């Protein structure tokens, strides 16, 4: 056998090994594959044109790609939701909504109104300000007429389309299965490689991490733990899944405030009560779910109402809310005054925390 042929065979073997490794690394179940098709299907809105991925785009860590708007736009022109779309990445790790000894934790959406991912996936299809379908039947009919309908019956049975309620739940179940895959939960940030000893942090990033963890300085870890916690599987997710009122001002730039009364009956007087509005509990007014900080550098604008456009603005707000001339909180009750508001950070220290937060973006190459 010639040397060239030996080299060719060796090279082809390496290629096959690489391909097989990639295939096994990205292997999905039929349900997860179905969920991905549903997640990206723009025919599941009325009119056609919007999918789950329209507000949860992979290119920006599964958040809204239109960073120029503080809240997300629906499929119907000039209609907008009342909140900034949270990232779907790592959402699968949030525990089921529950009341613990330390307060409410978990669930989905900013206000926890969906107990889990399956319940969350059911919401946008029927929201008139999002995918605008008139009923569940419209969604199921679109799936029935899709080019992946046979996969749906493969996963859920030959009679999967016979009962609309069951089929609608199955649609949400499949989407939740996709959201549990590595495509949304990558753990490939610089910080992940740093924890594995495969890269180092810069001096500024190290300082940022120290300030982030220091209870007498940034104290960010009080809600955004950099350690593995009870709900964080094998990786830190930088959230304790609790609910907090940070005193975020009302965002007068939100187009939701100026919608017709049919969609926003309170008009400019609208106040987002968050968890307290869902529970009808004044003790929870203004509280929103603590998000994961993974990919936070690319998921702007920030907060439930998109008030802040840059990450530095957010850190500076945490640092100076109670000592600088910030606008009043949208909901003045229950504001967290114990952990944020007057951190005493210097400008350089704020920059260092931002530098550390930039290490949490997936896709880092050591």
TrEMBL record:
Signal sequence residues: 1-25
Cofactor(s) named in the record: heme
Record-annotated Cytochrome c domain positions: 30-182, 203-361
Positions that bind heme c 1: 52, 55-56
Subcellular localization(s) per the UniProt record: Periplasm
Cofactor note: Binds 2 heme groups.
Xref: PANTHER family: BLL6722 PROTEIN, CYTOCHROME C PEROXIDASE-RELATED
Name of the featured protein: Cytochrome c peroxidase
């Amino acid at each position: 056998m010639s040397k060239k042929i030996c080299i060719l065979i060796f090279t082809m073997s390496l290629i096959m090994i690489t391909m097989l490794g990639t295939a096994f690394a990205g292997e999905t179940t039929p349900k997860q594959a179905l969920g991905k098709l549903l997640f990206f299907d723009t025919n599941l809105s009325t009119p056609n044109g919007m999918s789950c991925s329209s507000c949860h785009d992979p290119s920006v860590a599964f958040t809204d790609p239109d960073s120029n708007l503080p809240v997300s736009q629906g499929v119907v022109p000039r209609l907008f939701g009342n909140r900034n779309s949270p990232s779907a990445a790592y959402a699968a790790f949030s525990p089921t909504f529950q009341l613990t000894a330390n307060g409410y934790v978990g669930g989905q959406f900013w206000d926890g109104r969906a107990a889990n991912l399956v319940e969350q996936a059911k919401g946008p299809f029927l929201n008139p300000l999002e995918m605008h379908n008139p009923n569940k039947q419209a969604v199921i009919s679109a799936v029935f007429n899709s080019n992946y309908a046979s996969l749906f019956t493969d996963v859920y049975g030959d009679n999967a389309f016979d009962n609309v309620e069951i089929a609608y739940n199955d649609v949400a179940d499949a989407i939740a299965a996709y959201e549990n895959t590595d495509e949304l939960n990558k753990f490939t940030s610089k910080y992940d490689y740093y924890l594995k000893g495969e890269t180092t942090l810069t001096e500024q990033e190290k300082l940022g991490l120290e300030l982030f963890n220091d209870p007498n300085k940034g104290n960010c870890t009080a809600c955004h733990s950099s350690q593995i916690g009870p709900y964080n599987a094998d990786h830190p997710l930088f959230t304790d899944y609790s609910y907090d009122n940070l005193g975020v001002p009302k965002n007068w730039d939100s187009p939701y405030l100026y919608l017709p009364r049919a969609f926003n009956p309170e008009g400019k007087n609208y106040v987002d009560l968050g968890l307290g509005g869902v529970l009808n509990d004044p003790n929870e007014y203004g509280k929103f779910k603590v998000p994961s900080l993974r990919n936070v550098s690319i998921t702007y604008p920030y907060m439930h109402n998109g008030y802040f456009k840059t990450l530095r603005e957010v850190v500076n707000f945490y640092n100076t809310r109670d000592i600088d001339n910030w606008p009043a909180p949208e909901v003045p009750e229950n504001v967290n005054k114990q952990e944020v508001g007057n951190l005493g950070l210097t400008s350089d220290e704020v920059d260092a925390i931002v530098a550390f937060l930039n290490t949490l973006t997936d896709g880092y190459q050591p």
